[in-house]
């Protein structure tokens, strides 16, 4: 076991400058335990918007969330776009403010509910989604497909747990031929009538501040949940609620990795109080993949240390 801890410590020591670790010794010990346990006890829970996807694109402008794929598309007209933009301008400052979380929650419920009602009012059709995704600013971080593939090759479940839109996520994965990699998506799922128009959303509303383990309990892989890496990095630079997505899960080891996409100097200390590892500067998935590959390799040397 000591040799595994030493290997893990070297991984952390060799991390790029934009990777910060709250307690390097504790994280090295945690990584060593995960490597020792091997792929059979490994599982990923990850947010989608601005975690698996980029925060800013090459032009320096912000990329799209799954809701923005719909709201910024010309498919539903300019009036729809203006009304959803007005919701953003009203509620986003509340989401990223310093007021207590319990005071934010009613506003987040109102924001998500109003946005979803507008999609129904303006007759969103199932067939719109493919075109919306194709022409959107939604883009995966580099190396994310490699992360999906690594988990699939080791039969390690990969859960995408998002306050976004289930059907947009699946349309995006299908557009990029990634559904074959077997990710399990938990998000706000649309209901369509027989003519293909949106009529409602199924199940409990998932917004940015209520993501927790309850929605995961119906997962077909629930009985395999033992170890979690990347348990919901933040949707945005100020959204720390995602870290509670693993709350309530019977985990033996849980490594929390957060992406701090913006205002890093201002938010770093707060994130390091919440996450084991904080990744800044909106990079690709290279460091996450390095950790994942090392854990999943489960070498004979690692097994001898059990």
From TrEMBL:
Pfam families: UMPH-1. One of its GO terms (biological process) is nucleotide metabolic process. It is an enzyme of class 3 (hydrolase). It catalyses: a ribonucleoside 5'-phosphate + H2O = a ribonucleoside + phosphate. GO terms for molecular function: 5'-nucleotidase activity; magnesium ion binding; nucleotide binding. One of its GO terms (cellular component) is cytoplasm. InterPro entries: HAD-like_sf, HAD_sf, Pyrimidine_nucleotidase_eu. Keywords: Hydrolase, Magnesium, Metal-binding, Nucleotide metabolism, Nucleotide-binding. Its EC number is 3.1.3.5. Belongs to the pyrimidine 5'-nucleotidase family. This is 5'-nucleotidase. It comes from Monosiga brevicollis (Choanoflagellate).
């Amino acid at each position: 076991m000591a040799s595994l801890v030493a290997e893990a410590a070297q991984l952390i020591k060799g991390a790029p400058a934009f990777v910060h670790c709250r307690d390097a010794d504790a994280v090295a010990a945690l990584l060593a335990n995960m490597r020792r346990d091997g792929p059979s006890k490994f599982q990923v829970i990850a947010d989608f918007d601005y975690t698996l996807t980029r925060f800013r694109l090459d032009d320096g402008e912000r990329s799209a969330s799954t809701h923005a794929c719909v709201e910024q598309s010309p498919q539903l007209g300019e009036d729809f776009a203006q009304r959803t933009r007005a919701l953003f301008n009203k509620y986003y400052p509340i989401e990223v403010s310093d007021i207590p979380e319990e005071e934010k929650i009613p506003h987040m419920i109102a924001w998500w509910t109003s946005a979803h009602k507008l999609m129904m009012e303006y007759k969103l059709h199932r067939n719109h989604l493919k075109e919306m995704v194709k022409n959107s600013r939604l883009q995966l971080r580099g190396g994310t497909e490699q992360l999906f593939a690594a988990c699939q090759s080791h039969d390690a479940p990969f859960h995408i747990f998002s306050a976004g839109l289930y059907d947009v996520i699946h349309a995006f994965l299908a557009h990029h031929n990634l559904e074959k990699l077997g990710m399990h998506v938990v998000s706000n799922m649309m209901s369509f009538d027989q003519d293909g128009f949106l009529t409602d959303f199924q199940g409990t509303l998932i917004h940015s501040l209520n993501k927790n383990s309850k929605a995961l309990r119906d997962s077909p892989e629930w009985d395999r949940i033992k170890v979690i890496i990347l348990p919901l990095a933040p949707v945005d630079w100020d959204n720390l609620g995602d870290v509670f997505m693993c709350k309530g899960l019977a985990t033996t080891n849980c490594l929390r990795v957060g992406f701090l996409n913006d205002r890093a100097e201002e938010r770093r200390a707060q994130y390091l109080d919440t996450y084991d590892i904080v990744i800044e500067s909106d990079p690709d998935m290279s460091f996450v993949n390095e950790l994942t590959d090392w854990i999943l390799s489960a070498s004979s040397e690692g097994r001898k240390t059990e």
